[in-house]
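[worker-b] picked up task from shared queue
[worker-b] task type: protein-ligand structure
[worker-b] ligand name resolved to adenosine-5'-diphosphate; SMILES cross-checked against name lookup, match
[worker-b] sequence length check passed
[worker-b] input payload:
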Amino acid sequence: MATDIPVLEISNLHAGIDDTPILRGIELEVPAGEIHAIMGRNGSGKTTTANIIMGHPDFEVTDGGVELNGENLLEMEPWERARAGVFLSFQYPQAVPGLQVGNFLRKSVAAIRGEDEAKGAEFRKRLKDAMTELDIDRSFLGRYVNDGFSGGEKKRFEILQLMLLQPKLAILDETDSGLDIDGIRTVAKGINAAIRGTDSGALIITHYSRILEHVQPDKVHVLIKGRIVKSGGPELALELEERGYEWLEKEAEKSA
Amino acid sequence: MRNMAGKEAREAVGEYKAGWHDPENATIRFDFGLSEQVVRDISALKNEPDWMTEIRVKAFHHFENRPMPTWGNMSMLEEIDFDSICYYLRSSDATENDWDDVPDNIRDTFDKLGIPEAEQKWLSGVTAQYESEAVYHSIREDLEQQGVIFLDMDSGLKEYPELVKKWFCSVIPYQDNKFSALNTAVWSGGSFIYVPKGVHVEMPVQAYFRINAKNMGQFERTLIIADEGSSIHYVEGCTAPTYSTDSLHSAVVELIALPGAHIRYSTVQNWSANVYNLVTKRGIAHENAKIEWVDGNIGSKLTMKYPAVILKGEGSHAEVISVAYSGKGQHQDAGAKIHHLASNTTSKILSKSISKDGGRGSYRGMVTVSPKAENCKLNVVCDALILDDGSRSDTYPTMEVANPSARCEHEASVSKVSDEQLFYLMSRGHSEEEALAMIVNGFFEPFTRELPMEYAVELNKLMALEMEGSIG
Ligand SMILES: Nc1ncnc2c1ncn2[C@@H]1O[C@H](COP(=O)(O)OP(=O)(O)O)[C@@H](O)[C@H]1O
Ligand SMILES: [Mg+2]
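[worker-b] inference finished, payload out:
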């Protein structure tokens, strides 16, 4: 496979819901092995971008394209995208009462990586190691998916799934919110382990720079009103921390 | 959700996997319709003692004069045509204790349903009823040696007439309701069980009921007596072919848990969508006894069933855990009844219902505490999950508490499957149908974990089939 094909390529993406435009021409490329950050205020379209990559059926893409390793994602159902290697760590993971964590993990690994990967001692060891790394207790496996989980538990559980599913593209939507500093460090370790030195890529969505101190992003993109108005290196995150978003919003208005 | 799985599949009737039928090979078949003569003929055919014939005839007259219930799904009840039902049909002249001796086509049916296999692996005894009579029956030798009686009801009456006479209709008099009267008049088959003092039957015993013929009425009668300090787990399953005309299943089940005994009665009801399932189930719990009904209703056209427990002895305990699935054209009107007659008695009702494709689920429950019963505890939880807009769920809970020391808890919830939940599961590689099945099975989990593992797996598979092609 040619290595110059990016893991994720979004071109001129326009999308919305019920005829209301939300994304207006997003351009973004994440090459293999890189971790990129998307920053922006509440309501700027970060979660919508993630949802569209994953294939949320409520949104309508009106123009542009999204490709995973050169493959058109927009024609696939969400589960096909998952099987093709897209993973989304949700900003608000959903509870499924009665569905046990252990059982769900096994089924998801089987669906995405194949039955063989979800069986036997090897699977159990991978699961145990990942749980140890994320500081998750064994009793967790008997609980119901996200049911009564604290904010921090939900986020750790998303990263546990990331580590077991080994996607080509990991999108982490506000994984840092709801975590204390130890939690952020642990989760960052998980992300680094899943992406660095592999041919996968990651997109970290956040509106704080805190997590970025632990997961050095290769690039930082700023999203304002459905458009990426500025891209830069990790230093851009620090600049945003200091100066806020207004200066960029003004720049964006001028150019709009 | 939009533009997802195919819509046609939703309409497919082939989803019901037990809907085949064998050619009908009746050795005795009564004409359609019911009369005093039919009732007497059934009794004569079985060579019954006079007292049984008498009670049948009395019950028949009660049935005739008793109006239909004026609640539940009255319009569906009115559609029952009692004149076009066959009240007795025998397909095999003997109840065998070796599957090899059971007529081939009947044995094949039970093979397909996995009964002989389950028997070998995890059951203490099996009775298999086909139309009106048990065609196969067996019990493990060690249990027999301990004095456990496990027979089909007709053999029970022949071999233990005094025991049967003592307890028959003692928990559910034939006058209880129209359908208990009907059952008492024309009953055939069912199980008779007696567990002696202190004997624990470790592995479950199972009864399987199969209706094969068209317009058939199946009226099995079950009586379980658990003597002091004993325990038993009885499991029943049932299926029928899919026909365009209706059949009627109307059973009566009476349980007697003597002091300190424990009876658990589990049902996975999966009748085809042309069967009326109108069943009366009730148990009496004496001092410190425990009765549990674990009741799953997946199939049938109309089910009306409210397993009941009378907490007669101090310190006795009742549990009714039920699930109901109502799909297209189905109405599951199910629930529970518990009467606290003695002090320090406790009860728990957990009802879970799912409706889909215009199906209707109703929870109808009644819990009473009598004035003399001190310090009773009761807990009622009903949850409903509605899968689409045209489906319906209602709850009719009643609590009559005549003693102020009672502690009552009642919770009810109605929820819908959200698009966000489905999307979350789909993002983990699960198709929309699989995702829905996961949510549904999760919803039923508090029920399935009470079932023997083999049944739980079976139930989950059944529900996955029901979810197939269900999203348009
Ligand atoms: N399901 C939805 N229905 C209607 N509007 C939505 C929906 N999801 C997002 N939006 C709107 O799209 C905009 C971007 O939202 P979102 O992508 O969630 O922002 P962010 O994640 O950056 O906070 C907001 O104005 C929001 O109200
Ligand atoms: Mg967001």
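[worker-b] attaching auto-annotations
[worker-b] The longest helix of chain B spans residues 432-448.
[worker-b] releasing lock
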